[in-house]
Amino acid sequence: MNRKLIFTDLDGTLLDSDKKISNETEKIIKALVSQGHYFCFVTGRSMHDALPFYKQLGLDTICICNNGAAIHNPADEHFSDIFFPINKDVFFKLYQCNDLLDQLEYFIIKTRHHTFTNKIPTERKLIENFKIWFHLDFADLKKAKKESLIIADKSRKSDILSIIIVLKPNADVEHVYYLIKSLTNNLLISRWSIDNRGHRNDGQLILELNHNFANKYNSLRFAQSYYDVLNADCYVFGDGTNDMQMLHKVENSYVMKNASSDAYTMGHNITKYDNNHDGVAKTLQELFMPK
After folding, report:
1. Rounded to whole angstroms, how far apart are CA atoms 61 and 63?
2. pLDDT for the residue 263
3. pTM (2 decimals)?
4. What's 89's DSSP letter?
5. Is pLDDT above 90 for 40?
6. CB 3.0-4.6 Å disulfide test: which of 26, 150, 191, 214 passes with 84?
7. Cα 88 to Cα 59: distance, rounded to the nearest angstrom
8. Which of 115, 113, 154 shows the shortest CA–CA distance to 131?
9. H/E stretch holding 220
10. Are 161 and 86 in contact (CB under 8 A)?
């Protein structure tokens, strides 16, 4: 059997609703890797936020982060990280646009090593959710105000890999799109909501902006070339709008049973099980580890 190159999203895909990798999934993935197959993350998370799961599975492969804006291999000290950052002047255009700021509650940026926000939430539940959604920990508010707030000079010290805009519940979404497009026509916009699904169930809409070349599919193609694997031997798993391009363009694509309605239209296959029931691992087990 040819070596397979397997890419999986994390949140809503490999991770369950508690943001964990189950023991069953860990067991199956490690067995698959021991057979010689390549297993790679392709996630909206930063490397810092994906690293605990990378270590849990004992991976030594490329890790695609920030929706394709960053490509790492933390297991190879000789691998040169690749970045597709957002122009800092573009960031300031957006951050200084009062019409845009009037439509949002939070403006968040992710750099190579840190995440910053325009303000610290005060509600207890929201503080807890920020840790889950954006991996920002406000347990120590004094430290958070010092290290997590967007400060112009500080924000310019390292490349901005993604911008996350949390809209107000009553925001004019079409007007927000118009404002962004009028300020810059060179960013990719993906949308999700606080339940990490592709629609507005019971939470605010969230827009995520990345460099125009920074998408999961482009970085996936880099990894495919790096590992010299044929198209027919590539497999992808995802659940959200930021996965749609790779789900559509890769023949062996699997959209999660729990995926957003938009993602459903793009995947060539649907997993039998959702992310809370080891959907990725069980699909791979059926494909490559039949009993």
Report:
1. 6
2. 85
3. 0.89
4. H
5. yes
6. 214
7. 33
8. 115
9. helix 216-227
10. yes
Write the pLDDT tens digit of every residue in 101-148.
999 999 999 988 888 999 988 888 888 888 878 888 787 766 777 778
- 53: three-class secondary structure by DSSP: helix
Tokens of 127: 């503080």
For the chain, give the number of residues.
Answer: 291
Tokens encoding 46: 């930063």
Q: List the single range of 12-21, 140-149, 194-203 with lowest mean pLDDT.
A: 194-203
End-to-end Cα distance, the chain? 16
What is the pLDDT confidence band of residue 151, given thresholds at 50, 70 and 90?
Answer: confident
Residue partners of 274: CB distance under 8 A and separation at least 6: 256, 257, 258
- Ramachandran angles phi, psi of 30, nearest 5°: -65, -35
Q: How wide is the angle at C-alpha 83 spanned by C-alphas 26 and 6, nearest 5°?
A: 30
C-alpha distances (whole Å) from 54 to each of 14, 48, 75, 114, 147 are: 12, 10, 10, 18, 26
> CB neighbours (10 Å) of residue 90?
19
Task: Say how far apart CA 104 and CA 168 lie, in whole Å.
Answer: 5
Which residue in 244, 216, 231, 217 sits closest to 5, CA to CA?
A: 231
For the cut 70, the answer to whether the pLDDT of residue 65 exceeds it is: yes
Which helix H or strand E contains 255, and what residues bound it?
A: strand 253-255
Torsion angle, alpha carbons of 10, 280, 54, 86, to 10? -30
- For the record, the structure tokens of 161 come out as 């890999």
Sign of CA dihedral 40, 108, 195, 262: negative
Token pair listed for 4: 């397979």
CA 39 to CA 42: how far, in whole Å?
10
Identity of the residue numbered 121: P
Two tokens, residue 23: 């023991």
For 248, residues 6+ apart whose C-beta sits below 8 A from its C-beta are 266, 267
Supply 45's token pair: 């998370």
Whole-number Å distance between alpha carbons of 84 and 161 = 7
